[in-house]
């Protein structure tokens, strides 16, 4: 655990030191769980968004984009169920006065049991070596089976209690498991209460006539209320999707873990409208497609897993998370939800407008069912950033810090470095920058010895360093150094563009899907 904490601290400080993420309003001591993206962060964030948008909208002829407003008519949130049901169960510790999400306390308890399972597996793996069969061990080892049964029993009881709004039982579970305040160890808990996560605001200049509004807690509702507009104007035929990226706001009870859980964050969501009765197939299909998108970035298959929901949101008949191995363990990165006809049905009811699709093949109208894929852009940023940050031991007994971002997402694709600041080398380097910047983000760097500049670019995540030296004057060649292998090759200046393009081209990456 201490090792995980250390790694996470390194991620946070590296993000600040290298211009990726700053705390919001830092000069006023910051604002809790609100962050700003700095000069490199904004590029990485844009590239992730672009990678998602291309895979979703550009490459699917039956998915189109949308950019709906953050403010929506307040009835939207009555219809969607957010006013009545977008709650988290909170619990206060009477001694420490700290507030927690009751379900997260229980989930963290289960995560500790899971750590014990992993320890048993690691021990057995060591003992049996190549002969070790992990699957068989997990299903037959009495200790592991016992731990897993315990986790299942706890989570299923919590799921049922939350579904039935039996908050007394959630508290009873916390007490029975003897869960203590993680900060102080106190077990002196209040009752569990529901807390609505939406931020309210007002529209209008006068207090008497101002309208109560909410900042949207998800982008999805902007898609639902525009369903018919898009379907008609785009002459879309079911099955089809509408995708959107944008800010969402939640007054999280406990917002911690850096940009993992924020109060203002960005979502990338897609609602896929389908014929009722086909939801099971499409749900499975989208689970597969989304996992492939993640795997195309090459961040390690072992770092992803599905988690099927026990407790379903008020709108879903099936739901799963794609979990990622963050520095603090496996946590939700993306949700795939089978939302039935709940949202369109509710908006029909509350607006008194028909939100139906006429199916020419079946000669009938119906309210479409919906499969939703929903991923937090900030969470994806954290997944990419934390997975990429490595401390490497080198042959000469030194270490280097390198941010091995997938090249397609890196903020700058190349740094152009004159070996020395004289003999005309800076002029040639600047000419290369001026030429390449039409195709890629590139930076010019002439400060410090070249070795230090390489290290700086490694830590910044720049995939290539191009060095202009005295040989360049003779034969128009430069060295190109690869961030991950540190290998250097001499190439002609005119070859540089294609070498970079091959490694950063979205097509090359997305074709792996
Ligand atoms: N429209 C469905 C929906 O909003 P969700 O599971 O509540 O579903 C979807 O959120 C995704 O949004 C999550 O998987 C996560 O990546 C991201 N997300 C949710 N709350 C967040 C928060 N407070 N901070 C950062 N990302 C968040």
Automatic annotation (TrEMBL):
A single Gene Ontology biological process assigned to it is:
glycyl-tRNA aminoacylation
Cellular location of this protein?
Cytoplasm
Q: Cross-referenced SUPFAM superfamilies, in alphabetical order?
A: Class II aaRS ABD-related, Class II aaRS and biotin synthetases
Q: Which GO terms describe its molecular function?
A: ATP binding; bis(5'-nucleosyl)-tetraphosphatase (asymmetrical) activity; glycine-tRNA ligase activity
CDD domains recorded: GlyRS-like_core (cd00774), GlyRS_anticodon (cd00858)
Residues annotated as domain Aminoacyl-transfer RNA synthetases class-II family profile? 177-418
What are the UniProt keywords, alphabetically? Aminoacyl-tRNA synthetase, ATP-binding, Cytoplasm, Ligase, Nucleotide-binding, Protein biosynthesis
Q: What is its EC number?
A: 6.1.1.14
Q: What's the domain of life for this entry? A: Bacteria
Tell me which GO cellular component terms the UniProt record holds.
cytoplasm; extracellular exosome; microvesicle
An example of a Pfam family matching this protein is tRNA-synt_2b
- Where along the chain is ATP bound? 250-252, 260-265, 332-333, 376-379
PROSITE patterns for this protein: AA_TRNA_LIGASE_II
The record's section on Gene3D superfamilies has: 3.30.40.230, Anticodon-binding domain, Bira Bifunctional Protein, Domain 2
Tell me the HAMAP family matching this sequence: Gly_tRNA_synth_B
How it assembles, according to the record, is: Homodimer.
What family is this? Belongs to the class-II aminoacyl-tRNA synthetase family.
Q: List the protein's name.
A: Glycine--tRNA ligase
What taxonomic classification does the UniProt entry list for its organism?
Bacteria, Pseudomonadati, Bacteroidota, Flavobacteriia, Flavobacteriales
The protein's gene is named glyQS
């Amino acid at each position: 655990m201490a090792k995980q904490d250390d790694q996470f601290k390194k991620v946070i400080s590296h993000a600040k030191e290298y211009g990726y993420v700053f705390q919001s309003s830092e000069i006023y001591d910051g604002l809790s769980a609100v962050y700003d993206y700095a000069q490199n962060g904004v590029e990485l964030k844009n590239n992730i968004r672009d990678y998602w948008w291309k895979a979703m909208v550009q490459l699917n002829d039956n998915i189109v984009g949308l950019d709906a407003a953050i403010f929506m008519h307040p009835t939207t949130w009555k219809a969607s169920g957010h006013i009545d049901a977008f709650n988290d169960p909170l619990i206060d510790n009477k001694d420490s006065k700290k507030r927690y999400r009751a379900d997260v306390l229980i989930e963290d308890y289960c995560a500790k049991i899971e750590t014990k399972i992993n320890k048993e597996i690691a021990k057995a793996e060591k003992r049996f070596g190549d002969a070790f069969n992990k699957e068989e061990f997990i299903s037959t080892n009495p200790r592991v089976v016992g731990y897993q049964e315990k986790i299942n029993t706890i989570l299923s009881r919590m799921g049922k209690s939350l579904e039935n709004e039996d908050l007394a039982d959630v508290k009873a579970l916390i007490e029975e498991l003897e869960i203590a305040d993680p900060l102080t160890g106190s077990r002196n808990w209040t009752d569990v209460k529901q807390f609505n996560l939406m931020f309210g605001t007002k529209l209008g200049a006068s207090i008497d006539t101002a309208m109560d509004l909410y900042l949207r807690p998800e982008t999805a509702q902007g898609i639902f209320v525009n369903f018919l507009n898009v379907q008609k104007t785009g002459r879309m035929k079911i099955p089809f999707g509408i995708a959107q990226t944008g800010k969402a706001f939640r007054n999280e009870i406990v917002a911690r873990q850096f940009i993992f859980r924020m109060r203002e964050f960005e979502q990338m969501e897609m609602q896929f409208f389908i014929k009722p009765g086909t939801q099971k197939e499409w749900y499975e299909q989208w689970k597969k497609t989304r996992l492939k998108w993640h795997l195309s970035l090459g961040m390690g298959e072992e770092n992803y897993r599905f988690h099927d929901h026990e407790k379903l949101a008020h709108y879903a008949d099936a739901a799963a998370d794609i979990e990622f191995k963050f520095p603090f363990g496996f946590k939700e990165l993306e949700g795939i939800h089978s939302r039935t006809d709940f949202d369109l049905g509710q908006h029909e009811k509350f607006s008194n407008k028909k939100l139906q699709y006429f199916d020419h093949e079946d000669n009938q109208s119906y309210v479409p069912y919906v499969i939703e894929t929903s991923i937090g852009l900030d969470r994806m940023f954290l997944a990419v950033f934390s997975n990429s940050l490595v401390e490497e031991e080198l042959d000469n007994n030194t270490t280097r810090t390198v941010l091995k971002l997938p090249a397609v997402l890196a903020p700058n694709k190349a740094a152009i470095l004159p070996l020395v600041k004289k003999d005309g080398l800076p002029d040639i380097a600047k000419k290369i920058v001026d030429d390449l910047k039409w195709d890629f983000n590139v930076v010019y760097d002439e400060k410090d010895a070249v070795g230090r500049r390489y290290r700086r670019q490694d830590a910044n995540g720049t995939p290539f360093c191009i060095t202009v030296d005295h040989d360049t004057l003779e034969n128009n060649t430069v060295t190109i150094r690869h961030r991950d292998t540190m290998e250097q090759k001499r190439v002609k200046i005119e070859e540089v563009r294609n070498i970079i393009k091959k490694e950063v081209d979205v097509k090359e990456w997305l074709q792996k899907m």
